[in-house]
User: Which sequence fits this backbone?
């Protein structure tokens, strides 16, 4: 039985699935309409979401909350990334950075896994990099065209195929933490 990733974002799902297949695990995408709280910490949002999604599905599942934290903007948009992307988008964020020489930024991801009988477990992943001077690339989603991970020779996430993004990404790290823990816990077997 596949492990459920409760998300409405098919890009996130593809990234996580590619990684899971390397561990011999299959993921199932479920767009569960759980209520997402607004909070300053990704971990709080993810843990709360995992409990809600698990209660709605009646099955073990995990959710992920992610965001872009820009140093010169005091970590904005951070946990508000989804809203900021929908409203001002990449062009808006680039405008906020006009004339800003400190372009350092970090993507963070927290995944939280929950079972009907036990509280959530969470795992974090981060990648450091910088905000590009202009949007580049057509792959991926969200802020991918304007984020350059450290060590990628100036290429943005949107210029990378999924397996390459997974070598750097915040999501690959958090999901990997979950998968390793999950395989240890279940002795390689999937929960029913
Ligand atoms: P869920 O259904 O899983 O909640 P979502 O797209 O709403 O999907 P989040 O709440 O985690 O996801 O929103 C985080 C936003 O941050 C997301 O919409 C993107 O704009 C941005 N983001 C997060 N991870 C990203 C990544 O790997 N690449 C580009 N942008 C990312």
Assistant:
């Amino acid at each position: 039985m596949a492990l459920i990733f409760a998300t409405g974002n098919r890009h996130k799902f593809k990234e996580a699935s590619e990684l899971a297949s390397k561990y011999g695990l299959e993921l199932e995408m479920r767009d569960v309409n759980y209520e997402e709280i607004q909070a300053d910490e990704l971990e709080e949002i993810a843990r709360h979401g995992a409990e809600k999604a698990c209660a709605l599905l009646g099955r073990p599942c995990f959710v992920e909350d992610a965001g872009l934290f820009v140093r010169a903007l005091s970590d904005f948009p951070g946990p508000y990334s989804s809203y900021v992307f929908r409203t001002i988008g990449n062009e808006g964020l680039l405008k906020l950075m006009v004339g800003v020489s400190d372009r350092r930024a970090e993507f963070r991801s927290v995944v939280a896994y929950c079972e009907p009988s036990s509280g959530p477990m969470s795992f974090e992943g981060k990648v450091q990099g910088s905000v590009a001077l202009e949007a580049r690339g057509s792959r991926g989603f969200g802020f991918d065209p304007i984020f350059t991970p450290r060590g990628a020779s100036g290429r943005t996430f949107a210029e990378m195929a999924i397996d390459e993004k997974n070598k750097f990404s915040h999501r690959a790290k958090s999901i990997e933490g979950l998968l390793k823990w999950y395989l240890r816990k279940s002795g390689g077997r999937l929960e029913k």
